[in-house]
Amino acid sequence: MPLRFAVVVFPGTWSDGDCQHALQDILGQRADLVWHTTRSLAGYDVAVLPGGFSYGDYLRAGAVARFSPVMEAVQRMAEAGNPVIGICNGFQVLCEAGLLPGALLRNDSLQFRCVPTYLRVEAADTPFTRECHEGDVLRIPISHGEGRYFAEADVLDRLERERRVAFRYCTPRGEVTPAGNPNGSLRNIAGIVNERRNVLGMMPHPERAVEALLGGEDGLAIWRSLVAHAVAVA
Amino acid sequence: MRYVAEVRVMLRPVVNDPQGLTVRGALHQLGFAEVANVRVGKHIEIELDAPDLAAAQRRVDEMSRKLLANPVIETFSVELREAPGT
After folding, report:
1. How far apart are CA B49 and CA B6, in angstroms?
2. Residue A102's CATH number
3. Strand, coil or helix: what is A16?
4. pLDDT in tens for each of the 86 residues of chain B?
């Protein structure tokens, strides 16, 4: 049985088609595009908040989308223990909604960066990374102007203590250094999970690294982890 | 009664502001060597109806906390006045 993914679409979302393509055409799962006015995600196994510019990024990235009707359903899915993955703008929405701590600020370069990045897997015990090993280096592209992760020092300490940093930006050799950091994120943080480890936010786009034709397949590890997780908990 | 609220949203001091640093650099290049620091924020004007000034203040504070500012990274302040012609 394929998993049922709800790919949430806000006005201004742009990576919904890429997520659907990755999930359906490459991974053989079922992925429905779900409009933001939907109030129920009953029957779905996983919620995906894709990248884009919901509501034009007006005010702050994700600030308006978080009040969409669908977000209450996303929150219920998270509370029920289902995996929720927010990518790029989806990460921003999850932070604005308070499902993840911190915020994403304008890149320290002030540039929109659309480049491949290297991610060191920091925690392999999440539904999103169980097919990886800690220390693995994944090559996955970013595409954002506001991806600089910020949280207070005590929040960062807690994330690290609880091993909730899923990915850090690194060099191709896996060194977590300023040279590997494309946006000035504190402590090179590229992705984090919630306390329960079933909500992931990440700035890089794993749906854009699923075919050699696209320049790499490293994003598959994240999608395959979700499928393996569903089999394991079934 | 109609009021005009001016909401000023600024990044918290602990948050690095690359926009401000860039503007400071530009001002230095233009010869304004005396510029020590620049921070860039947002200015939002809201016209609203409320029974009195205190009620308007409460509503705008609520709007600011809920949507206009993100307390993780920003602070806000509100200035209120009666709208012209009311």
Report:
1. 14
2. 3.40.50.880
3. helix
4. 999 999 999 999 999 999 999 999 999 999 999 999 999 999 999 999 999 999 999 999 999 999 999 999 999 999 999 999 76
Position of tokens 């029957």?
Answer: A43
Buried/exposed code over A22-49 (b: 16+ C-beta within 10 A; e: otherwise): bbbeebebbbbbbebebeebeebbbbbb
Range of the domain at A47: 4-233
pTM of the model: 0.95
In the block, which residue shows the tokens 């948050």?
Answer: B15
Structure confidence by residue, pLDDT tens digits, A5-55: 999 999 999 999 999 999 999 999 999 999 999 999 999 999 999 999 999
* B11 contacts on A by Cβ (under 8 Å): 105
Could you give the CA distance from residue A23 to residue A5 in angstroms, rounded to a whole number?
A: 8
pLDDT in tens, A62-120: 999 999 999 999 999 999 999 999 999 999 999 999 999 999 999 999 999 999 999 99
Domains in chain A, number: 1
To the query of whether residue A36 is one of the catalytic residues in this protein, the response is no
The answer to whether the beta carbons of residues A219 and A22 sit under 8 Å apart is yes
For residue B62, give its domain range.
Answer: 2-82
Closest CA to B67 of A40, A68, A150, A156: A68
The single-letter DSSP state of residue B83 is P
Query: What is the chain A residue with the closest CA to B43?
Result: A59
Residue whose C-alpha is closest to residue B22's, from B10, B38, B9: B38
Question: Residues for chain B: how many in total?
Answer: 86
Q: How many domains does chain B have?
A: 1
Give the count of alpha carbons within 13 A of B7, CB side only: 24
The nearest CA of chain B is from the CA of A31 a distance in Å of 31
R_g of chain B computed on alpha carbons: 16
Active site residue A21: no
